[in-house]
Amino acid sequence: MIRPLYNWVMKLAAGRHAPKALAAVSFAESSFFPIPPDVMLAPMILARPEKAYRYATICTIASVLGGCLGYAIGYFLEPVGLWVLSLIGHADGLDKFKELYGQYGLWVILVKGLTPFPYKLVTIASGLAQFNFAVFVAASVVTRGARFFLAAWVLKRFGPQILEVVERRLYTVAAVVLALIVGGVLLVRLL
């Protein structure tokens, strides 16, 4: 099922309505769609590098708005939120999860928003935990913006060569980025 969706998204990236499609995919991915917007963002930037930051802006805004829908799903549709909890390994209890999310929710949003981890799980879990909505939105803007603008900068600067390296070593690249974030957080806490 994923392969046909992937092919469909790639076809959208090549169409004349690609920016609108990019916004739709970015919005949907933050709440329910399985294909990340990076699949469209990369070829669009490679085809029109002068619009890299415009595309990153579209991704960021649409992703945050879609994240608000994901938050609402978790907040208002608790059975869906509980199902998501079971997917991410917290099926043992809503109260314990809310307590953990109350302590680490901001860091969950910031770290998971940068990685290939499905962001829709973070948005739905944030709503389920009734995490502070304003903080959720601000953290989403920071993390999603960082992710998409970093991708835009790298693709604009290094072009197709870097895309090949990232695709071959996606998990290694994600692990390095995550290690840098965790290291930075630990450093800030120690200081």
Task: List descriptors.
single chain; 191 residues; mainly alpha; 10 helices; 0% strand
Overall mean pLDDT stands at 80
pLDDT < 50 stretches: none
Largest sheet: none
The structural domain count equals 1
SS-based class: mainly alpha
**What's the tally of helices?**
10
Number of separate strands: 0
The fraction of residues assigned to DSSP E strands is under 5%
Report the principal-axis shape: globular
Measure the end-to-end span.
48 Å
Instruction: Give, in order, the helices and strands.
Output: HHHHHHHHHH
Share of helical residues? over 70%
Radius of gyration: 17 Å
Summarize the topology.
Layout (H helix, E strand, L loop, with lengths): L1 H13 L3 H12 L8 H10 L4 H25 L1 H10 L6 H21 L4 H10 L4 H26 L1 H9 L1 H21 L1
Walk me through this protein's architecture.
With 191 residues, this protein is mostly helical. It has one domain (2-159). The chain is 82% helix and 0% strand. It has 10 helices and no strands. α3 packs parallel to α8 (133-158) and α4 runs parallel beside α7 (119-128). The longest helix is centred in the C-terminal third of the chain and has 26 residues, at 133-158. The protein is globular, with a radius of gyration of 17 Å. The model has no long low-confidence stretch (mean pLDDT 80).
